[in-house]
Amino acid sequence: MCGIVGYIGKREAHSILINGLKRLEYRGYDSAGIVTIDTPSNSFTAFKKKGKVADLEKAISGKSSKGKIGIGHTRWATHGEPNDVNAHPHFSPSKKLAMIHNGIIENYSSIKKELISKGHKFDSETDTEVFIHFIEHIQQNNGCTLEEAVRLALTKVVGAYAIVILSKDQPDQLIAARKGSPLVIGIGKNKEEFFIASDATPIIEYTREVVYLNDEEIAVLRGNDIQIKSIKDIELTPYIQSLDIELEAIEKGGYDHYMLKEIFEQPRSIKDCMRGRVRLKEKKIVLGGIQKNIDNLINAKRIILIACGTSWHSGLVAEYIFEEFARIPVEVEYASEFRYRNPIINKGDIVIAISQSGETADTLAAMELAKRKGAINLGICNVVGSSIARLSDEGVYTHAGPEIGVASTKAFTAQLIVLTMMALKVARYKKTITEGHFEELLKELTLIPEKVRKVLELSTAIQKIAEIYKDATNFLYLGRGYNFPVALEGALKLKEISYIHAEGYPAAEMKHGPIALIDEEMPVVFIATRDSSYDKIVSNIQEVKARKGKVIAIVTEGDALLPKMVDYVIEVPNTSDALMPMVSVIPLQLLSYHIALMRGCNVDQPRNLAKSVTVE
Ligand code: G6P
Fold it and tell me: pLDDT tens, 25-40?
């Protein structure tokens, strides 16, 4: 949450910062701001504005500075409502220091109290303003350098941060630090310029050489020098990596929205995820990323899957897959609950963290807890080099490509692929699956991209259904077995981007509550493909129809029964029960997209949400 950018070099910083903020806007869009240092006056030029980066850009129009160093921020509000004053950057009392911050300082109120008792006055309600006041206070009291003051302040603050600080007195220097919130430094040619950002997307059009800052590290960027120290004042050697992302991957490529592009990318992203891993000819699955722990997985007494949001739903599907094929008990945990309830971790337990961004604060903290308790941590992440990926003992990248739409789509299907590959690989080693069944599932996996492509062709038909139900105030999504988590995911997608209240439920549980909601106005989406619970779900559909509910059913191609019973059907190609979620979720993604669009919602940046939730 919150996106931060910084630049120091020979170019004008202004447009680099604004373009960078646009790329990071998925991280928060409550307000935006930038500050640059103008030479030769060494004065700050700052602009802050409530709303999106485009609002900031409009406010700046014609007034931009020519400074070659600056920082920028796009905010997802934590402390203080979204307005111009609470927007970052924030300034120290002398107005000589400016700071941007992603994260939360938990002990800010005690620091603030102390500073107020010493005469400090604050313009905003933010923890960030307290932070930068605190740094200047330390600098003045100790008569030390800014770098040292930052280091000392960091030893005192509790919480999460990625910060960048600009000083009028040192107009050729940027100081950055992180703990718990991500920060990447881009190294320009001959180290003549440096870029800083919350992720690599604002950087890759300038350079592929990057350094990921680790927790409790401080970077000082000056002229053509990058210096990294630990918070304990130990000098470290920057580890420069080369990134492998193409610019097109982070642009809309002709689609109206990132979400639509990402939905339509799924045949390719699923293929990319399996590439080199699902080897049909050799009849095997290769997952180099977890090779060292394969014996631990095979012998695991229990697997604990931890995740949040959509990633948690992919964990629920995986629970069914691991238990059915690998016969290992699985628990699926909300990371935010797991970390605060003293969970029992036994020797031989494997924890798998699932996260698109690899930065979700709760998932990260849950992993740290599991690690402390002796678990082996495996990670399934989409973002290469992300914090969760780096904290994992081993892991598998989903390779879905950058996902920018706030509502997760292609990351979900790629996570399902990875989890299925893992479960099948383990099942085969354990011999809990027959060779014949293994090969059959392997073959089916390779057919998924084409089946997904066929479902995407239904977009216009789904649009027509969306037109009919776009004004509904409630939706119910019901599924059984492998399609139960899909019902949860369908409801979440609709809520997230169209703001229609939607609930996902196991279809049989409907009788224990949600059935009371059903009337002639209530659309009920059944995911009723032809699997082992088909007959049961047909009965559940009858129960809804008997109460005059409106039923939209996702059915298997060729189903002769359900089209006669329900109001609208969406036919999807058949596949194995365990793989069906990758196919049956697609119409639900499209339905949410079309409904949200018709309701005039911003599908890529839904209100109050952010893509990368780096606060707990
Ligand atoms: C946010 C996003 C969701 C995502 C969830 C978990 O809520 O809006 O789309 O599923 O975080 O994120 P992660 O990056 O850990 O998968």
Answer: 888 889 999 999 998 8
**Nearest 10 degrees: Cα torsion 319, 324, 330, 331:** 40
- pLDDT for position 608: 85
Q: Tell me if 326 sits within 8 A of 426, measured CB to CB.
A: yes
Is 611 one of the annotated active-site residues of the chain? yes
Determine contact, residues 375/395, Cβ cutoff 8 Å: no
User: What CA–CA distance (Å, rounded) separates 363 from 309?
Assistant: 11
> Could you tell me if the CB of 605 is within 6 A of ligand 1?
no
Which CATH number is correct for 3-243, 3.10.129.10, 3.40.50.620, 3.30.499.10, 3.60.20.10? 3.60.20.10
The minimum-distance atom of ligand 1 relative to the CA of 383 is 14
Average pLDDT, rounded, for the chain? 94
> 258-270: buried (b, 16+ CB within 10 Å) or exposed (e) per residue?
bbbbbbbbbbebb
**Is the pLDDT confidence value at 612 over 90?**
no
In the predicted model, what is the mean pLDDT of residues 61-78?
91
For the chain, how many residues are written?
A: 616
Query: Distance between CA atoms of 305 and 337, rounded to whole angstroms?
Result: 12
Q: Boundaries of CATH 3.40.50.10490 in the chain?
A: 250-453, 457-607
Q: How far is the CA of 488 from the centre of ligand 1 (A)?
A: 14
pLDDT of residue 79: 80
Q: What is the CA angle 34-207-150, rounded to 5?
A: 45
Condensed to tens digits (0 to 9), the pLDDT of residues 408-425 reads: 999 999 999 999 999 999
* Pocket of ligand 1 contains residue 611 by CB under 6 Å: yes
Please state which of the ranges 126-130, 223-227, 430-434 shows the lowest mean pLDDT: 223-227
321: three-class secondary structure by DSSP: helix
Query: Where in the chain are all domains bearing CATH 3.60.20.10?
Result: 3-243
- What is the C-alpha to C-alpha distance for residues 105 and 127, in angstroms, rounded to an integer? 6
Sheet of 394-397, strand order: 330-334, 302-307, 349-355, 376-381, 394-397
Does the pLDDT at position 140 exceed 90?
A: yes
Residue 320's contacts (CB-CB under 8 Å, 6 or more residues apart) are 481, 482, 485, 578
CATH architecture of the region 457-607: 3-Layer(aba) Sandwich (3.40)
Q: Is the CB of 68 under 6 A from ligand 1?
A: no
**Mean pLDDT of the region 169-194:** 94
CATH 1.20.1250.20 fits domain 250-453? no
